[in-house]
Amino acid sequence: MNIINTTGLSKNYGSIKALDNLDLSLESGDPIALIGPNGAGKTTLLSLLCGFIHPSSGSAELLGKKVGSRELIGKLAALPQDAHLDPRFSIQRQLGLFAKLQGFSGDAAKKEVSRVLETVLLADAGVKKPGELSHGMRKRVSIAQALIGSPELVLLDEPTAGIDPPNVKIIRDLIRSESSNATFLISSHNLDELEKLCSTVVYLSEGKLVEAGPIKTNTDDGYLTISLPSVPEEQFLRECAKLTGVLNVHRQAQGDYLIRQTEGHAVDQALLALLAKNGWKYRHLIKGRSLEERLYG
Amino acid sequence: MSMFSIAANEWARLFLSSRGWLAICAFALIWIVFLAYVIAPAAQYMSSDDFGLIFAALFARFGANTLANWESNEMALYWIFALYLLPFFTMISAADQIASDKTRGTMRFLVLRTSRTQVFFGRFLGQYLIQLFIVLITLCSVFALIAIKAPDGLSIAISEAPIVVINLALVLLPYVALMALVSVLASTARQATAFAIIGWIVLWFLLGYVQGKFGPIPILNWVLPGSQLSSLVRLGHWDTLSLAPIPLLHTVVLLTLGWIAIRRCDL
Questions:
Q1: Distance CA A189, CA A33 (A)
Q2: In A, which residues are within 8 Å of B16 by CB distance?
Q3: Among A54, A83, A97, whose Cβ lies nearest the Cβ of B108?
Q4: What is the pLDDT of residues A214-227, one digit of tens each?
Q5: Sequence-separated (6 or more) residues with CB below 8 Å from residue B179
Q6: Average pLDDT, chain A
Q7: ipTM of the prediction
Q8: Taking burial as the number of CB atoms within 10 A of a residue's CB, which of B53, B59, B110, B124 is the most buried?
Q9: How many Cβ atoms are within 10 Å of A292's Cβ, its own excluded?
């Protein structure tokens, strides 16, 4: 089923083209990653899809309905970037109003609020005001509001930005478990995170669509990625470069190496033998390149 | 349905928040002082022969010469003061219909679940009902004053109350609509009040300038919200309703502008 469809979608701020003639068609299913550098147009796209801002030209449809259509209420949910709940009222009260606006009656609204707060592991936070929660907990509450009812499409703008690792893990697990019920479109700079969660990537740059397709690593692209947290760097680079079929070796982040190989050689086998010979331990070995390396390498 | 949930939530925003209670307490204190030190002694002076003549002359000077025709002095005084004071309170208390929610991003959570139109008119309706509640509360305080000072006059005051309530309800309507419009354009409640006051003064000068330059244009005298007030105090009893179309027209125009603004603005 086609969940997002944009035709010539553009948004200008004065002379700046935040989004430039975007034609995009996405199917429902596994989570979709929306990536791109700062200023690429990710938040603009999500804001346009939610109807928070109006396009300069073009049009967009979600679940076969025009953006802003009443029929999308309850089917579309979102975690908007930099949107905050009212600090004067309890979480329960505010989420309760959202549930009522989505059609839940008094008691049903209370139950629904309890359900979504339990889902984000914040069952006891309902009586608190937003200011009494940490940044990570507030973010989880904002995700909870997106889970009210049974949305078919959930747009998350930077769900893990500025959040500590335990909260990131909770959010990641949450998205993974909820993705069987709804299609998630997740905008983030954390490509490792997205690679773990998503099966499709939409890559924007300078307001234009660069790529939209499967995120799966191409295992035959002539690269190996290995993580070696505690090996002598110089020695590894030297000995690895000597292996048959290795064209070059580059150190990436701390302990990560990207190995380019020639076709037809089982370099991975030779590499494992080299590690065993020297007693070096590896954390993981991946055929192909990481998403970050493919896009920005 | 969403509109009524939003309207009901306006009451919660007033009565379930410390800021709301602070505003209620501040207004209550001001009103109690006003009632005890302005309306009560003034009503007493109006009853005495010598001071009654002075008051009649004073009100006549301001064009409110029909006040002497009101049977209850307290109601006459409440009428004139409420007519000029409550709109100012409305411009402060109804200023945050949209502004801070828009700036904070809370509005985004709402428009994912209901239309901008429902939010705009729901907030307007909720704030208008709050203003009516304030009218009724202040009126009850006047009844209490009469019951303490001159119980015999209570039945007369109650019989005159519907005229006062209906007129104040009409007078406050465009002010709530004005605040609905400016709160869409402003970033904070304070800025919305400032926009309303500055806009009102600028328009007042502009209309005066236009009439000074091109001669009297009668229709321009009715452009500003509250422009009917000086005529209203000259009328007595149900004659006051002859001016009802003016605030209603102001309200329709202001709400239409506000509705266009909220539909067009970025959230």
A1: 10
A2: 88-89, 93
A3: A83
A4: 876 666 678 888 88
A5: B90, B91, B94, B95, B97, B127, B192, B193, B196
A6: 89
A7: 0.84
A8: B124
A9: 17
